[in-house]
Structures are given as C-alpha cells and as structure tokens.
C-alpha cells in the first residue's frame, strides 16, 4: 500500500481564491484549499499518473480556471476543469502538443523522455527538461525559449520559477535596494 500525499516535486498554484497541489499515491488527484471557506476538497484527474514514467503539474488554465499538464513521452496534454450549463464540473482536454515537433528534436536520439520541472503561474510558463536542453514553454501561444544546455541524462534538480516585479520609480520592490543595489552586490 502506498499512501496518498502531496507531490513534493511541484509547487502549489493559486487559481481564484484557492490553492491547488497535485496528489500521488493510491490515487492521483488535485487537492484544493479554498481560502474563503477554509475547506479542503479533492478533484480526481482523468488520466493514470505514474510519476516514474510521466510528468504532471497543476496550472492556471488558458482563459483562467484550474488546469493541469500531463506529459508522457513527447506528448503534452493540457486539461481544464470546466462547469457545464447544468453546474456539473468535469475535465476537458483542451490541447495536445507534440514536443518533439514543437522543439525540433529527434525523439529517437533521446535516452529519456522530457520532464516538467516547474510552472511559473504569473506568466503561465512551464519549465521543461529535455535531452537537448531546458526550455521555458508558454502553451497558450506555443512560444518557447531554450534556457540551458542539458546533460544527456535527467538529473533530479529542483527548480523554483521565480518571478519578480520591477517598478519604474524605485527598482525591484520599490525600496532603496532596487536594481542598481542588487547589481552592485
């Protein structure tokens, strides 16, 4: 028996007034903590997830709302939690992307399948490890950028997508320790 627990390799995502985490173990699902009601609930996902052979992360879906990305081999599925006119909520497959074609790589050369490293929720950008490098991918526009060269084998590094704010009047964070002070450190 395997306990169900929060998948510690992925950060939480805030959508609306709720925080979401991915659950793995006896079953896979998404744990929701509603900040207004101070309540927990679990949403089951429509795919079987084995974190040893595939990769998954909770995201803010295209147009807002809850979503998740499911990556198996070189295929990414973007799912969205939608409510129909009768108030019944269910998962809808929004998009499927062939990563080997998008990133112009030969999947037969790779010794390991790509992995999701993290999700930057402010810009809806996913960090992906591939055998040719680490990429940031924006799945709504299908724009991508190679950030780093990669080792031929996946290493279990932890990435935390950090997004900062720059204000024109005072630099980063607006205080006396703005961009110029950070540059001099």
Automatic annotation (TrEMBL):
Any Pfam family the entry gives: Beta-prop_AT5G49610-like
Matching InterPro entries: AT5G49610-like_b-prop (IPR056594)
Domain F-box protein AT5G49610-like beta-propeller: 11-162
Full protein name: F-box protein AT5G49610-like beta-propeller domain-containing protein
UniProt source species: Aegilops tauschii subsp. strangulata (Goatgrass)
Lineage: Eukaryota, Viridiplantae, Streptophyta, Embryophyta, Tracheophyta
